[in-house]
Write a structure and sequence with these properties.
mainly alpha; 0% strand; globular
């Protein structure tokens, strides 16, 4: 693991932690605290869950000694950041330009795709080859995991390229911008395709851990959303008849 890669990870990690806290703890205050306003609190919490998973990934990168354990995560992160950078340009007028959070968002997503991809590019020459002693996944497992990853990429692409075909069927209100952001988040699941190219369990292990972190955070967010939107209200009192 090159020094550049470790330092990049150390720079990205606190940004992701701060973004997670803002969106997960204060999802109803995006107008004041975030780059754009999203009235549906579930979307910020899903994005925050992805940030939490990303923070756990880059924190682990700083301690990792084997490049192949984190290589695919770098590609997934570069794709995610690139998609959000493009969405920012496409939906420029929907962002809150007077908010400091927007300019932080803009600088991060303009720079991050190049920085993360460079980390992958310069480090890949040091990847360890597959050895006979490495623990490998069963062929059936590789096919299934890779198929799930490909499905995530396909569905994320539909959400990103054609948000109008998704927003009306989504369980909470979406705009074209928030649909594309969620589509980029779904594309992170495409990292599972690595199993078709690298049979080592160690190439997937960290990604599975990150996925668990993201899914648990999303499930908790969904539970909170359902609780607040379906919380029963007290029945109205019927006035008593006089006389």
């Amino acid at each position: 693991m090159l020094t550049y890669t470790r330092r990049l990870s150390a720079w990205i990690t606190p940004l992701l932690v701060v973004a997670f806290v803002v969106l997960y703890v204060f999802p109803g205050r995006t107008a004041q605290l975030w780059a754009w306003t999203d009235p549906a609190t579930m979307t910020p919490m899903v994005l925050a869950s992805a940030y939490l998973g990303g923070a756990s990934f880059f924190l682990r990168v700083q301690r990792s000694r084997a490049w192949h354990e984190v290589a695919t995560g770098f590609l997934a992160a570069a794709l995610f950041a690139s998609l959000l950078a493009i969405a920012t340009v496409v939906h420029w007028d929907e962002f809150t330009h007077s908010n400091v959070a927007f300019w932080v968002w803009f600088v991060v997503y303009v720079a991050t795709p190049f920085l993360v991809f460079r980390g992958w590019f310069v480090n890949r020459r040091y990847a360890a080859p597959v050895l006979a002693i490495d623990a490998k996944m069963h062929p059936v497992e590789r096919v299934l995991i890779g198929a799930v990853g490909l499905s995530a990429l396909a569905f994320g692409a539909v959400m990103y390229v054609s948000p109008s075909s998704v927003v009306d069927q989504w369980p909470w209100p979406l705009t074209s911008l928030s649909c594309q952001v969620l589509g980029a988040t779904v594309c992170l699941g495409g990292a599972g395709v690595v199993t078709w190219f690298d049979p080592r369990w160690t190439s997937l292990r960290l990604l599975v851990r990150v996925e668990v972190v993201m899914l648990v955070a999303m499930l908790l967010a969904g539970s909170a959303y359902l609780w607040t939107t379906h919380e029963p209200t007290a029945p109205a009192r019927v006035p008593e008849e006089s006389g």
